Amino acid sequence: MAKQFTRADRVAQQIQRDLATVIRAELDHPQASLITITDVEVTRDYSHANVFYTFLGTPEQGAEVASLMERAKGFLRSQLARGISLYKMPELHFEYDHSVEHGMTLSRLIDQASSLSKAPEEDGDDESTGKPLNG
To answer: How does this polypeptide assemble, per the annotation (predicted)?
Structure first.
């Protein structure tokens, strides 16, 4: 059975797509092209939208991007209103999405664990007999 999407879900997806486009095309900032909108959550009454984003760059640049997003909030909201037909455009709240960092950390830990588990196999002994492989 197909998943049923609510109107709020469809509005959130539209906001996500349109915001990504507006940020890349309209924001005049060097780091704007490095911003990715990862998710948007809209309240039931459409008065607020939590916008989650990631940024590829240094922590210093990340702070600059967070400031940019806050300063551009009104502009972005007005640009969205041009393309989305709602009685009232939701107020935008930007939050940095840490899930990508958590995923990278978990991936690194898994890589470390797998390299540690492979290390005894590389010492040159056959585990089944305990004798050196070379002779």
So the answer is: Monomer. Binds 30S ribosomal subunits, but not 50S ribosomal subunits or 70S ribosomes.
Residues 40, 19 contacting (CB under 8 angstroms):
yes
Q: Annotate 52-78 with b (16+ C-beta within 10 A) or e (fewer).
A: bbbbeeeeeebebbeebbeebeeebbe
Tell me how many degrees the CA angle 29-32-38 measures, rounded to the nearest 5. Answer: 160
Measured from the Cβ of residue 25, the count of other Cβ atoms closer than 10 Å reads 10
Q: Which CATH class is domain 7-119?
A: alpha beta
| Ranges of each domain in the chain | 7-119
For the chain, percent of residues with pLDDT exceeding 90: 39
Q: How much is the pTM? A: 0.73
